[in-house]
Every structure is written in structure tokens, then in C-alpha cells.
TrEMBL record:
Annotated InterPro entries: Alkaline_phosphatase_core_sf, GAG_Ulvan_Degrading_Sulfatases, Sulfatase_N
Keywords: Signal
The protein, known as: Sulfatase-like hydrolase/transferase
Coiled coil: none
Organism: Luteolibacter algae
Domain Sulfatase N-terminal: 32-390
Stretch forming the signal peptide: 1-21
Length: 562
């Protein structure tokens, strides 16, 4: 593949900042390298180090044992796009304003304050490998802004699928056919600094020896849309064909099939679980769910092998002692708890994710290897910048965990705030929650969305493509979404509330909101919610672009991605 040439100005800037490798002895790199690994839909309990006694994740377990495992880490929004934008920008969705139903993309101005761009501006060589599910710039995924923001790009937009070559031409030069192994080739190519992998795009001929790097690896597994495609092909690695198939895989606690529900988890007028996306219908059939659980666990083991390969390569290249590794997921997933499937709620199984931070220069042992402090996905970006010695943008809402990791502070926050603004025809309600280490409060709003079944019936009536009816986002949806954002701040009342004593009821089985004995706790957390939602919204207008099917049609762009 031909390498894009630098402009004369860019080349001059690069050569000046590099001090001509051939005329001066290299200076040692003092700032740390970073590798950030983000999995997709991975439940907290899908690792050996988080208590799963069946799954095989020895490499990630070792990473946790040598680093710090945060046992109380949560995302800000339990659905892919807003969660990933929140990680990139260190902002709550209520501030950045981008979701599948928002009709918007991240503006170039907002993107300039993302952690990859800020790190690149401050002398880091940046790479992105895997799945991008954050629409950036005018035209979203088709703007080209994301690709141009990195020195090394080996990724696709939207779902890159388990057999990634079928969806993304960029991966067709890989030897492997399966996602994790294809991305592993990209990782090895990035670290080898030889750039021989056909398809990968890079701005410079090679990574400068004296520049620290930040590599973001974002996966599409164990997301159900990806693992559903697994075919157990002869060419697939053995783990994807036979692993765990001889095991008795237990269902989650509080699992019930759809037809066994006696009392719905949420009132029928605010949550329509029967309208959920068809991909989550597996919770209605035990055998189908068990198969999806096996495949999900197989891909997590595949990720584990990728992590092992990464660490061995870092060691071989003398990079291990100066590379911080961060591993997390964009959110969890319900596997039939209370008969529910999917995500986009504020329950622990949706928002609670694994978070591991490994700093090779931290040689602490024992109890410091785990933390029960309240941390969030928006803390990842400021933490990396803090370790890099880079001042975080004022737009960041997360907190650096570096002082916590170094034992300089005991905690970074007293309460966590999470939210769901993805309330659509698929039945999910708008909700927000606040929690401390012992209690959680969730509030819900009136659900007036048209149901998916009604849209499907209309599409069939007129011979229309059902997915176009269900997933197209049009300009009026922007206005509707903005009422979702601002309504609660302008006095919109909650129509249902939940209160859980997490210390005694971690599975959130017993709602205590109507119990007079806990009215004081309920009122206390209502006041906390009032403060936290204002902080989450922040000041000023969101920095966004219109990004709807209407706008794409006007611009002559291609298909809108969902």
C-alpha cells in the first residue's frame, strides 16, 4: 500500500520536533506509552478475576493481579455510541449530546478536545485499531475526520462483525478471518513499526523512536451482533469451535424466561420489554441463550489471548516497563435477569463494567491491587493525560484516577451518576440513577414512544424495508431527543422510582422506594440526583452537527449508520 506523503510544512514540523535522528543521539522516552483496550457488551462477571470460575482469562487475570482491578467501575450510559463518545471526550451524554436517536454527530471542535487528539497534539504517536462507533464530524462516519486524527488507523465504522473481512475492506490484507485475530495482527504491526500489514493506513513511514505512543484497541466482541455470526468454521481458531461446549454454563441469578415472568420488573406503561430488538430475543429460549453465552465467553477468551500476545510483544521490544495498559468495556448486558435482555437501563448488570489499570512502575502488592472506589468510564481519559503530564481540557467531566492509584487520595467521588437517553420504539424508558457504595436511586419518565411492532406493521403494509422504518433517524428526532435531555432539568416529574440497598441486595431485586422505613434515604438521594444531573448537563450548548437521514440525503452522502 502506498504511504500518504507529508506536506512540506508537516514534514518540516515533524523533522524539527524529531531533531533529526541521524544527527543526534536519541533521548530516552520518559513519558509512558499507553494501550487502551475497550471490549463491547462485556459483563463484569465475564472474567476469572471478577469471580467467573468457568471462563478462561489467565492473561487478563494476570494483568489485574499486577495492576489495579476496580470493582465498582461504571459507564455513564449503557449503550454503545454514547458510552464510547463519553470515553473519548470524558463527558456525560447529557453534555456531548450524541446517541443513536439524537440525530447528531460530534463536531470537529468537540473532537479537538478528545483524548486521542489532545495526546497527538502533545507529542504522542497515536493509533486506533478495531471498531469505531462514534460519529465524528459533518457526515458522521463518512466525514473522514476520525481516520485523519490518528497516525495509524486499522479500523472500521459501526459493527465490524466477527468475520471482519466481510464488512470492511481495510481488513482484507490480514491472514486471519476472525475479528480478534485480525485486530491482533494490527497490534503486532503497530508495535513492530514496520508497517507491512496491507490495508493499515499510517501518516508517517514509521513510528518515531523518541515519541511515546497511545494505542486504542476497540473491539466488536463479545457483542451479540458479532458472536451471532460465528459459524464454527474449520478455519476458525479452536477456541471458537469447541471451548466451553462441554461445560454446564449456569444462567445468571434471577434468570427467568419471558413466558415465566409473573411480575414485570418495571411497570408496563414505562417499559415495553416485548418490543426489544430481535437480537435480544435469545433470553426467551434457554438453549438459544446458552449458545450465546458460550460464544460470548469464547470471544472473551480470544481477547485474553490477544492481551497475552500484546504483553509478550511489549516485553520483547523493550517497551513493557514504560507502557500503561487500561482495559474496560463500553457497558454490560442483561442475560435474562428478571426476563430482560439487552442494555440501556441503569441496573448494575448494564452499567457495571470491568476496569483494570496496569502501571508497570507501580510495584505495590496485596490489597492495593483491588479498589472498591466509585469510578467511571469518563475517568479513563483524564487518568491517561495525567500520567502523560498533559493538562486535561476544561471540557472534561471525568476525574484522574492517578492520585487514587498512587495512594494520595482515598476516593475521587462520593456518588456515581448514570443515565439512559436512548428511549425509542424498542421500549426502553428514559432513566437516571445516582448511587453511593451502599444505595442506588433510579428515576423514570413517561414513555410515549411509538412501539416497534406498530412501525413493523406499517412497513409491511406499504412494502417498506423494516430496518429503514425502525432505524432511520430524521430531523424531528433531534427535537424529541433534546426534550429528553432538558426535560428533567426543567421540572419534568418522574413517574416511577426505585431504591435499592446495594450492600444487602446487589442484584437489585427488592425496590424499597415505597417503604416508609427508607423514606429518608430516598429523599437524600433525590437531592443528590438534582445536583448530579445538573453537573452532567454542564454549561452551554452541545458541540454537535446535524446527522440524520435527511441531512445525509441533502449532502449526497451514503447510508446512515446505526
Amino acid at each position: 500500500m502506498s504511504i500518504p506523503r507529508l506536506s512540506l510544512l508537516a514534514a518540516a514540523v515533524f523533522l524539527n520536533s524529531s531533531h533529526h535522528a541521524w544527527s543526534q543521539a536519541p533521548e530516552p522516552i520518559t513519558r509512558p506509552n499507553f494501550v487502551f483496550i475497550l471490549t463491547d457488551d462485556q459483563r463484569y462477571d465475564q472474567l476469572g478475576c471478577t469471580g467467573n470460575e468457568i471462563i478462561q482469562t489467565p492473561e487478563i487475570d494476570k494483568l489485574a493481579a499486577e495492576g489495579v482491578l476496580f470493582g465498582n467501575a461504571h459507564v455513564t450510559s449503557a449503550i454503545c455510541t454514547p458510552s464510547r463518545v463519553s470515553i473519548l471526550l470524558s463527558q456525560f451524554e447529557r453534555k456531548h449530546g450524541v446517541n443513536f436517536n439524537s440525530g447528531t454527530s460530534v463536531s470537529e471542535a468537540a473532537w479537538e478536545q478528545s483524548y486521542p487528539v489532545v495526546m497527538r497534539k502533545n507529542g504522542y504517536y497515536t493509533g486506533y485499531i478495531g471498531k469505531n462507533h462514534a460519529p465524528i464530524g459533518k457526515g458522521g462516519y463518512e466525514s473522514g475526520v476520525m481516520e485523519k486524527s490518528f497516525d495509524y488507523w486499522y479500523a472500521g465504522h459501526g459493527h465490524i462483525r466477527f468475520y471482519s473481512k466481510l464488512a470492511n475492506d481495510i481488513f482484507k490484507g490480514a491472514k486471519a478471518d476472525t475479528e480478534v485475530e485480525i485486530l491482533d495482527e494490527g497490534i503486532q504491526d503497530f508495535l513492530a513499526n514496520e508497517h507491512t500489514l496491507q490495508g493499515a493506513r499510517h501518516f508517517l513511514d514509521e513510528r518515531p523512536d523518541r515519541k511515546p505512543f497511545c494505542l486504542s484497541i476497540c473491539l466488536n466482541v463479545p457483542h451479540g451482533a458479532a458472536v451471532k455470526e460465528m459459524k464454527q468454521k474449520e478455519s476458525d481458531p479452536e477456541i471458537y469451535r469447541s471451548l466451553y461446549r462441554d461445560k454446564d454454563i449456569p444462567f445468571p441469578r434471577n434468570f427467568v424466561t419471558w413466558d415465566s415472568i409473573r411480575e414485570p420488573k418495571l411497570p408496563a406503561d414505562i417499559h415495553f420489554p416485548e418490543e426489544r430488538q430481535s437480537g435480544y430475543n435469545m433470553v426467551s429460549e434457554e438453549q438459544t441463550l446458552r449458545e450465546m453465552m458460550i460464544r460470548s465467553m469464547q470471544t472473551v477468551t480470544g481477547i485474553d489471548k490477544m492481551v497475552g500476545n500484546l504483553r509478550r510483544t511489549l516485553e520483547k521490544k523493550g517497551l513493557a516497563e514504560n507502557t500503561i495498559i487500561v482495559l474496560s468495556s463500553d457497558h454490560g448486558l442483561m442475560w435474562g435477569e428478571f426476563g430482560l435482555g439487552g442494555k440501556a437501563l441503569c441496573y448494575e448488570v448494564c452499567t457495571h463494567v470491568p476496569l483494570i489499570i496496569y502501571n508497570p512502575k507501580d510495584k505495590s502488592t496485596g490489597e492495593k491491587r483491588t479498589s472498591g472506589e466509585l469510578v467511571q468510564s469518563i475517568d479513563i481519559a483524564p487518568t491517561m493525560l495525567d500520567f502523560a503530564g498533559i493538562e486535561a481540557p476544561e471540557t472534561f467531566q471525568g476525574k484522574s484516577l492517578k492520585p487514587l492509584l498512587e495512594g494520595k487520595v482515598g476516593s475521587v467521588r462520593e456518588h456515581l451518576y448514570t443515565e439512559n437517553l436512548w428511549s425509542t420504539q424498542f421500549g426502553n424508558p428514559r432513566c437516571e440513577s445516582v448511587q453511593d457504595k451502599e444505595w442506588k436511586y433510579i428515576r423514570y419518565y413517561k414513555n410515549q414512544n411509538m412501539r416497534a411492532s406498530a412501525k413493523e406493521s406499517a412497513a409491511k403494509l406499504v412494502g417498506m424495508n423494516i430496518n429503514s422504518m425502525l432505524y432511520a433517524v430524521h430531523d424531528p428526532d433531534i427535537a424529541l431527543y433534546r426534550t429528553y435531555v432538558e426535560g428533567p432539568l426543567n421540572g419534568e416529574p418522574a413517574v416511577y422510582e426505585e431504591l435499592y440497598h446495594l450492600a444487602k441486595d446487589p442484584d437489585e431485586t427488592t425496590n424499597l422506594a415505597a417503604d416508609p422505613a427508607h423514606s429518608g434515604q430516598l429523599e437524600k438521594l433525590r437531592k443528590v440526583w438534582e445536583l448530579e444531573i445538573k453537573k452532567a448537563r454542564g454549561e452551554g450548548k452541545p458541540e454537535i452537527h446535524r446527522y440524520t437521514n435527511d441531512s445525509m440525503a441533502e449532502s449526497g452522502g451514503g447510508t446512515f449508520h446505526d
